[in-house]
């Protein structure tokens, strides 16, 4: 058996059905092996290794399975960096298969003495959970198994395996029956220390105003039922980070929505400050969801649950650290809480219910804006109405993510939204929608992207057409880099010419790639256009001409605190945080 064939069989036996990437001269051995898979593994050929990594990331987030991408030696590897960095900071399980120079010429990598040579291990190490460079044929299968396990277990993340081009066609002895390659690798899941669980239960029972702050780690292990069970037992409201959006249906009376100084629901900062205990679940204490590290404050009790023991207590003083799988640990907590006296916190319920009511009134008012150019808030609200409960909503970075987080309503808990919060880089949206659609053919994938972000990866629309993917791309075209435009105005006053973009004709671009498209310039035309997009059998693009004057970011509303600057003391609550 050749190494390329062993790679194919190991991927297939570990549940991989899709590989995403761009062919290169040094990966042809692998591509030939994939072509002989008898339909078990399809290759989704994209037009840039960077977008391939983004697509693999979204595939993993949408399905809960291992995402796999490939890249050829040198420029293919350098192109992977942005996508792998996003996956690393978002804890997405990806296997990146990267080819290398021929074994006998690897030592000529320095300065590209051998064509396309570069130290790929050092290149990829900062953006990967682990990097495995195969140098001998006999070590390949061990390294591949290690790479798959590393990507999936503990805190998930991207892992690269680098394989010399000649080694793909090297013959090796197939592994014996019963080895790891013959059974699907499942992430090892662990419960928390029972003593820590007991301490957490005591704090939760004693709290008068508990609040759950749930992040992407809970969504990643499908803990939505367990989060709801604990919240209902405690009668505690559930706020989420951007990546935690989807953990609870947002029409539930305990669902508070997004917490944060960027794209946070109006008034939720007051509710978070009023809590006497914050239970953080699967969140890395990022600057946005903690209002620039001011919540939790020094007077609030903190319980932090995370699969990564290095995460709990890393940023905030933590009263109880729970290390384990969110779904299993929440089950531990729920079982311990069940049977105790029924919790009733009428004053706390009245407080957060009032905040939520006022937030929804304000969001509803903004979503109904009917001016021209169209308000982005209105666009997202109409997308939310057009999407079915099981559909997936993907956002590009910048304002598209913020508008989407605030105004897209989750009808059914689950893996429903994908945001590029790892690196927040423009260009994530369209390839992510392609990856999500490849993994979820049962659903439509609605993409919200600004014109700036869409320009980064517009070529992938042709990939959606080629594979007949149900991507509904909504481009909010305001002719500017919105976040940068408003940040400049808030910090320095006036306008910056460099933030202006030409208004591309994305309808013409889409049509040129074989994708049907329509332009919308009046708010009353949005609903019909989105219904047409939702009903399409393949990809469809809706270009919406939107206002450049609207911003979802609190710090853009006048001279406010610098959103990029951390307070000197993480527990010091600052003005305009």
Automatic annotation (TrEMBL):
Residues 1-122 form the Thiamine pyrophosphate enzyme N-terminal TPP-binding domain. InterPro entries: DHS-like_NAD/FAD-binding_dom, THDP-binding, Thiamin_PyroP_enz_cen_dom, Thiamin_PyroP_enz_TPP-bd_dom, TPP-bd_CS, TPP_enz, TPP_enzyme_TPP-bd. Its cofactor is thiamine diphosphate. GO terms for molecular function: acetolactate synthase activity; flavin adenine dinucleotide binding; magnesium ion binding; thiamine pyrophosphate binding. SUPFAM superfamilies: DHS-like NAD/FAD-binding domain, Thiamin diphosphate-binding fold (THDP-binding). The keyword Hydrolase does not apply. The keyword Protein biosynthesis does not apply. Belongs to the TPP enzyme family. PANTHER family: ACETOLACTATE SYNTHASE CATALYTIC SUBUNIT, MITOCHONDRIAL (PTHR18968:SF13), THIAMINE PYROPHOSPHATE ENZYMES (PTHR18968). This is Acetolactate synthase-1/2/3 large subunit. The lineage of its organism: Bacteria, Pseudomonadati, Pseudomonadota, Alphaproteobacteria, Hyphomicrobiales.
